[in-house]
Amino acid sequence: MQTESQDVNVKINEKPSYTYPIFIGENLIGNAQAYIEKYTSAKKLLVVTNKTIIDLYPNSLNLKNAEYIILEDGEQYKNFETYKLILEKAQELKLERKDALIAFGGGVIGDITGFCAATYLRGIDFVQIPTTLLAQVDSSVGGKVAINTEFGKNLIGAFYQPKFVLADTSVLKTLDNRQFKTGLSEVIKYAFIEKTAKCDYGFLEFLTKNVESIKQRDNKTLKELIKICCEIKAKVVNEDEKEAGLRAILNFGHTYAHAIEKVTNYTHFTHGEAVAIGMRFAFDLAKKLNTISADYYNEAISLLAKYALTYVLPSGIKKEDLIEAMSFDKKVLDNKVRFILPIGRAAVKITSGTRPEEICN
Ligand SMILES: NC(=O)c1ccc[n+]([C@@H]2O[C@H](COP(=O)([O-])OP(=O)(O)OC[C@H]3O[C@@H](n4cnc5c(N)ncnc54)[C@H](O)[C@@H]3O)[C@@H](O)[C@H]2O)c1
Ligand SMILES: [Zn+2]
User: Fold this and answer.
1) Does domain 8-175 have CATH number 3.40.50.1970?
2) Which ligand sits nearest to residue 135's alpha carbon?
3) Which residues does a 6 A CB cutoff place in the pocket of ligand 1?
4) Which protein residue has the closest C-alpha to ligand 1 atom 19?
5) What is the pTM for the complete model shown?
């Protein structure tokens, strides 16, 4: 079996510096064994996945020497108990430092598997096979891994990079429409921050031109789209792995989104839906503050509409609730929020020292 040449190379400049490849394309997962042999020296593999994915893709990975742990499906299982279950399974199988954990699933699976890999024996090899659009363009890139606790989401975690990422566009065909759109919201986010990330793919034009083929999940268009997103994220992460500065631009739309998710108890909107509202809100604020032209404002709002990413807040949500929720965000320091504001076409600026009340006006 042959492996393709990499599509994106992620470089992490932190010391010691580290590089890993991302492979993107149609029907890649059946070839997972060849990639694993090339990029790890694992003898034993533990694949972490969930019931939904394994029902859809029972033997698709075609792996030799792999054991599976099949979790319940849902964000609520990204917790301590599951973490313990996976580690116990790794111990039972006597996985050694050189063996590997394989995350086969969406962001939930990727985050929890990565955190297990980071901590089991103080770190064993880890491979990401992301199966949602969100995981392929966002959570599998950049090395943030985590679990949720009763105190909040993703508060216990690590920065831990995989050996490689295998993003197969074919598996996106089985995603339901809502999950696909959730990923698209993060995709569009990259178009709005592209220039600040010092990239120049003309991603806004790409997304405007290819609405139909993207919605139809055309493999070739998706490959191009995922590649651009990964490159933008990789560029930002390369400059700032631990979020000392620039990485904050990836949170465009997120300050508000996190507050919305919190006040609606994480049940009303998916993350991407909340991000779409958050981006809309950031554009409204930018228009009001005169930091962008009317033309760009209209272009941005109509792009969200083209992908049907227009949502309204449920009635009954008060401004005060959103302000309070923002004050508890883990990115808040001294009750000042770091807000990402559009300041030009495909460009944003990190504003710090903003009080939640100012943003919500
Ligand atoms: N580490 C990071 O940098 C980062 C970034 C963004 C989000 N996240 C995390 O990612 C998680 C969200 O990820 P997600 O949106 O992928 O959600 P998810 O992992 O819950 O997947 C969404 C749903 O799609 C199903 N699914 C997965 N692949 C499928 C396929 N190919 N066909 C059909 N159904 C499929 C899943 O079983 C699940 O029901 C959150 O926990 C979030 O905190 C992490
Ligand atoms: Zn997000």
Assistant:
1) yes
2) 1
3) 50, 52-53, 56, 73, 75, 78, 105-109, 111, 131-132, 134-135, 138-139, 142, 144, 153-154, 171, 174-175, 179, 182
4) 106
5) 0.95
